[in-house]
Amino acid sequence: MRFLIAVAALLALLPFGLPPYAMTLLTEALILGLFAMSLDLMVGYARLISFGHAAAYGFGAYASGNFLLHTSMPLPCAVLLAGLLGGLVAIGVGWVCTQATGVSFSMLTLAYAQLLYAVAFKWTPVTGASDGLAGIPRNPGPFGVTWWSTKAGFYYLTLACLLGTFVFCRELVRSPFGAVLRGIRENEAKTIALGYNTRRYKIAIVAISFGFAGLAGALYAPFAGFANTELLFWLLSGQVLIMVIVGGAGTLIGPVLGAVFFLYMQQQLSSYTDSWALFFGVIFVLFVLFMPEGIWGLILSRFGKKAA
Question: Of all helices (H) and strands (E), which one includes residue 38?
């Protein structure tokens, strides 16, 4: 808890000393960190590998984009409602996908994401088709409150969503519900033999995970000012999975660090070459071979602790 408070205080103070461009990158890193943390609930705690997590991210972006463009809904309300809708829709997705296990589950999540990607290309009135939604505003609240439309205000809104999600997820994985998830991860057959309906738990964690991914997407739309089909593409699903693995799966905070590392390396490598993804792929392979517990695992090992 002390560590969390210290990190939160540091992040809260950063806007006072960072230039505008660095603030923009930091805000994007927090959004990606929330996205990666949401996937870690599935990958790190229930060993449900999703190849279609971008579907929830893109859904949240389009939902909040439409709320902000076509209604006078305040920005925080639009963001939270979009995340909630993403979680509700994911109940059906989880019900379908959890009828399979292992690689088959992963392929079903990928199929769902690609289906949504195809729909986004055709549903012009809602998604803008290939042009996407542009000019997404940061709607003011009651009495003309526009604080969150500023760079610092939006940063604090994003930080509040990230910290709130982290606290919720931490308590979730420490609860009896989380214990069942770890049982599914380690030995699902034994967990079933103990009397647990593991499929219900998997549907629940898919819905929660997709809901938080939708929240991240809902933040990204007003942050960038647009939403397009690239947010639903399978490539983004692969990138967020890399963030989880590089940061440290099953730790919650590790994927956030993985997202920061990914964004930093992308910015640095892309300034030297257009083939930055090739070089980052080499870095990813080195992580898998020599640092399987990820960045957070390495940090904990320095202090003589074992990664969760």
Answer: helix 20-43
Please give the pLDDT value at position 147: 81
Name beta bridge partners: 226. Answer: 134
Q: How many CB atoms lie under 10 A from the CB of residue 133?
A: 21
Query: Rounded mean pLDDT of the chain?
Result: 91
Judge if pTM exceeds 0.90.
yes
How many structural domains comprise the chain? 1
**pLDDT of residue 306 exceeding 80:** no
Residue 204 near residue 118, CB atoms below 8 Å: no
Rounded distance, CA 190 to CA 192, Å? 5
Residue with token string 């996937």: 39
CA–CA separation, 132 and 111 (whole Å) = 21
d(CA 276, CA 135): 29
CB within 8 A of 150, min separation 6: which ones? Answer: none
Q: Is residue 56 part of a domain?
A: yes
Residue 168 in domain: yes
Q: How far is CA 214 from the centre of its chain?
A: 8
In this prediction, residues 32-41 reach a mean pLDDT of 96
Does some domain include residue 104? yes
H-type alpha helices, 100-233: 102-122, 124-127, 151-174, 176-193, 198-224
DSSP string spanning 60-120? HHHHHHHHHHHS---HHHHHHHHHHHHHHHHHHHHHHHTTS-HHHHHHHHHHHHHHHHHHH
* Cβ atoms < 10 Å from Cβ of 2: 6
What are the structure tokens assigned to 125, written together? 């009135």
Is residue 33 assigned to a domain? yes
Residues of the domain holding 59: 2-234
Residue with token string 């997705």:
93
Residue 301 scores a pLDDT above 80:
yes
What pLDDT, on a 0 to 100 scale, did the predictor assign at position 307?
47
DSSP state of 16: G
Per DSSP, the three-state class of 49 is coil
DSSP label at residue 146: -
